[in-house]
Write a structure and sequence with these properties.
By secondary structure, this protein is an alpha/beta fold. It has 26 helices and eight strands. It starts with a helix and ends with a helix.
């Protein structure tokens, strides 16, 4: 997240000099604590929060917890991670409080410009995606066109809006006031919306209230009146993550004025310092429930203190990445793609389907930012072009179905046509085809290797492959050896002589069932003719001749 990028870099630098030391002295720890303190203050974290945080970290770092650790540097990082999790919300993930008897009433409060109206649409979209039937209420009658903005946001989120004081309602009501009008009683609007929600069977009501440029008594009185009129189950304080040191005073004022139950951090995608997040939960004692990190409706997620601490320390957030992938990816389609990769029939159509699924997860920058250690590659992330996927899709869409199924048929003239049709250069088309070919080969190799070691996958281990070949060689080698038992060895030589003479031997049924080889080497045939045969027709061969012959014939 951009709001923590500077803090992440400075904390990473604070731990660098510890990695090369097998044992940490008190001076080493004090130097690290000093750098951590400077990093937190630069990020606009409240002074009292910084003092208590660094004091706890120093106390634990100087104790036996670090001195007896196998890797002291990693133990210090773990301590910082634990303490960050603590000040971000005591390590507890609290869900929304839903009413036993619907509707659940959620009231949004905060200063003007904090992003309450946009957040109302995101929260409505999130609740609808979770199976609820939310209703947005336009109770901000102070700011010009605030109701219109909420209606637009509600239309984008496909969530109905209750707006009796202005314009046409998004769910079919009649206009009762002229566009742009901001007069009306917000308390009455909030009160009437509850009955409206019950009549229309909405199980959740999200009330967007007015804000001010600063905290004043008029703002707090209106917020208290709405609270007392509707008795909300949740009062969410929306705070701009870029507000800086004012975050603590603002949060304390709203906590005293309306006694909010949870915090929502907005604009975490901004490039300002995000110290507000590290201050509000610790100062007010109220948990952070959600964070907003973009303008899109999906740029909204549940806040997890431990995961946020990991992101700040550049340890990634793999759990959130997995949850998003499980939510958006179709498991059946993924299995079909894996089968096509193994068979070598994976085409550009399948590739584009997977690209579209990746796009559902959000921006590539945010996805890559959840991978551990990506802070060292921030410049490359910033230079990443999000529209590259659009260009790739345009190239694939310019191909015929046959070309998408089998890219090997795309020759020079076809590449020129595809480039012209997609608005790209021929080199761009060549680059895509080369990358796809390399990726397809690599994926096929990987699936074959995985299949070879797993029973039932039909890989090399199931016969004729890597495993089977080795077994066959061993068995063949074992067949060449001669028995150490004289009687058994004599029986083997006798069976061999019987085979060469073309006669059946009761003790050597394995040889007798196979037809005699009619084409013997010329030198061997001459030796047998010179030796002659005995009265039974058996060749007169030396006793040790059988062992050498068996080795020759294999």
């Amino acid at each position: 997240m951009a709001a923590f990028s500077s803090l992440t870099d400075k904390l990473s630098n604070a731990f660098k000099h510890l990695k090369s030391k097998g044992k940490l002295s008190e001076a080493d720890i004090d130097g690290t604590i000093r750098e951590i303190r400077r990093a937190l203050l630069d990020a606009d974290v409240a002074l009292d929060v910084v003092r208590s945080f660094t004091s706890r970290v120093r106390e634990r770092a100087l104790g036996e917890e670090v001195s007896q650790a196998l890797n002291p540097a990693q133990q210090v990082v773990k301590i910082v991670n634990d303490e960050l999790t603590q000040i971000l919300g005591a390590g507890v993930d609290r869900p929304l409080n839903f009413a036993k008897n619907p509707p659940t009433i959620i009231m949004l409060a905060g200063l003007q410009g904090a992003g309450k109206t946009t957040l109302a649409g995101k929260l409505g979209y999130w609740l609808k995606d979770a199976g609820h039937t939310p209703l947005l209420v336009a109770a901000d009658l102070q700011r010009p066109n605030a109701v219109t903005q909420l209606q637009v946001v509600g239309e984008r989120a496909d969530v109905p809006v209750y707006a009796p004081e202005k314009g046409v309602q998004s769910d079919g009501g009649e206009a009762v006031a002229a566009p742009g009008q901001t007069s009306g009683d917000p308390v009455k609007v909030a009160r009437d919306s509850i009955q409206y929600a019950k009549d229309k069977l909405h199980d959740t009501v999200i009330i967007d209230t007015a804000g001010r440029l600063g905290v004043d008594e008029e703002l707090m009185k209106q917020a208290r009146d709405i609270r007392d009129a509707v008795h909300p189950n949740e009062i969410l304080f929306v705070i701009d993550a870029m507000i800086g040191q004012d975050a603590v005073q603002t949060a304390e004022a709203f906590n005293k004025g309306v006694d909010f139950t949870g915090v929502v951090l907005s604009k975490l995608d901004g490039d300002a310092r995000g110290g507000a997040a590290l201050s509000v939960a610790s100062v007010t004692g109220k948990p952070i429930l959600f964070v907003s990190n973009g303008e899109g409706l999906k740029d909204f997620e549940v806040f997890h203190p431990d995961r946020m601490a990991s992101r700040i320390l550049d340890m990634g957030d793999i759990l959130t990445l997995i949850e998003q992938a499980q939510k958006e990816f179709d498991e059946q389609e993924a299995m079909e793609s894996a089968k096509k990769m193994a068979k070598g029939t994976y085409g550009l159509d399948d590739f584009m389907e997977q690209l579209q699924q990746v796009r559902k997860l959000g921006s590539m920058k945010s996805l890559l930012g959840m991978i551990p250690g990506m802070a060292a590659h921030r410049k490359e992330l910033e230079a990443l072009d999000e529209h590259e996927i659009d260009r790739t899709e345009a190239i694939i869409n310019s191909m015929t179905p046959a070309e998408r199924r089998d890219p090997s048929i795309i020759d020079g003239s076809r590449r020129a046509r595809i480039a012209y049709g997609s608005g790209n250069t021929v080199s761009s088309v060549n680059g895509l085809l080369q990358r796809f070919e390399q990726a397809a080969k690599m994926m096929k190799r990987m699936t074959n290797k995985v299949g070879g070691g797993i029973p039932g996958m039909g890989g090399p281990a199931m016969g004729g492959g890597y495993g089977g070949g080795k077994k066959g060689k061993k068995g063949k080698k074992k067949g060449k050896s001669k028995s150490g038992n004289p009687m058994k060895r004599e029986a083997e030589e006798k069976a061999l002589r019987a085979k060469l003479a073309g006669k059946k031997n009761s003790g050597g049924s394995a040889f007798a069932k196979k037809p005699q080889n009619p084409a013997l080497p010329a030198g061997l045939q001459e030796a047998m003719d010179a030796a002659g045969t005995d009265e039974n027709g058996t060749p007169n061969l030396p006793p040790n001749f059988g062992g050498g012959l068996s080795g020759l014939l294999g």
